[in-house]
Amino acid sequence: xxxxxxxxxxxxxxxxxxxxxxxxxxxxxxxxxxxxxxxxxxxxxxxxxxxxxxxxxxxxxxxxxxxxxxxxxxxxxxxxxxxxxxxxxxxxxxxxxxxxxxxxxxxxxxxxxxxxxxxxxxxxxxxxxxxxxxxxxxxxxxxxxxxxxxxxxxxxxxxxxxxxxxxxxxxxxxxxxxxxxxxxxxxxxxxxxxxxxxxxxxxxxxxxxxxxxxxxxxxxxxxxxxxxxxxxxxxxxxxxxxxxxxxxxxxxxxxxxxxxxxxxxxxxxxxxxxxxxxxxxxxxxxxxxxxxxxxxxxxxxxxxxxxxxxxxxxxxxxxxxxxxxxxxxxxxxxxxxxxxxxxxxxxxxxxxxxxxxxxxxxxxxxxxxxxxxxxxxxxxxxxxxxxxxxxxxxxxxxxxxxxxxxxxxxxxxxxxxxxxxxxxxxxxxxxxxxxx
Length: 436
Description:
The chain is an alpha+beta fold. The protein folds into two domains: about 100 residues, 2-Layer Sandwich (Phosphorylase Kinase, domain 1); about 210 residues, Transferase(Phosphotransferase), domain 1, CATH 1.10.510.10. The chain has eleven helices and 13 strands.
């Protein structure tokens, strides 16, 4: 483990707890639920001390831990009770792959738990700095040990809730120890609801149900985290966090998680399958327990698709050969008639074009029509037009000037044709507005 950079929230080295039974050596790290210290006990044995310090709702005044404000006091008291109750239950666990708990006690306005010190390197540091050590054989050993520890916990109604690479310590001889039970959840029914409690998530490793206080949790929740751990070991990075995945899927978009089965990573296909199933968003689609994971891991290697079986290919070739011997070359019957119709259409000359004027009336003699239009244009050009001057009024004959008679049309001009055509349609236009 690496020593975390000390800040004002941690207890200084030399601080004594429980009337001198424990003495703080240095700070090891800080998480969502508390602070971790390296310490020595009264017999000079190295131990780890976990201090309940949910920094979102508390602060330190000297050595004393107090709620951040009056509104945080009830919540802080509930977290303290939860912290000590779980420590008492964890102290009763006895498994070689689970960190041993010595005792829990109250002091400085908060609670502490004394645990075994596990020497080794956490898996996150191993992936970052020595990935070559994670051989397929070692990965297989690590997974079996973690699954054994989780099975032990789940059989006793305990969820770890923080199965992440920094909480798995690998010793020099390849033994794994599951540490940091600060987020653990214990219940007689791990599938049921839970009372008010402080929830913590770790993006990339926490399943979707950890992001919701009402989310139903079970053994499959820890298996999701184990799947994320495997993804880190196999690819070098954690999968997309569950909340982002869920939001994108709910919005009708694609799940950003790329199944390992669709990749060309040189991993046992069974491990790819187990990881993908453990990382399913819906709990019903996941592996339900450690035994399910082991069943996939130790199961038969899936056979390639039958189409690649040489015996099947031989049968298909024989069927195709027999079918071809009784077929008549040429187009299928369904396509023969359309082809005949197309050939006939290509041979038939197109009908002559029919020209029409602006009213849609047919023009029999195009040349005569164009000459007439040219004559009318020249006649209009010779008629003098007086431009409007300042002070002139636009008047409507027969309305603004009652004594001026409305001139009657003379001749069948283009203007009169247009006017006569438009006379019959006086409906109000339908106006539609668009906001763009």
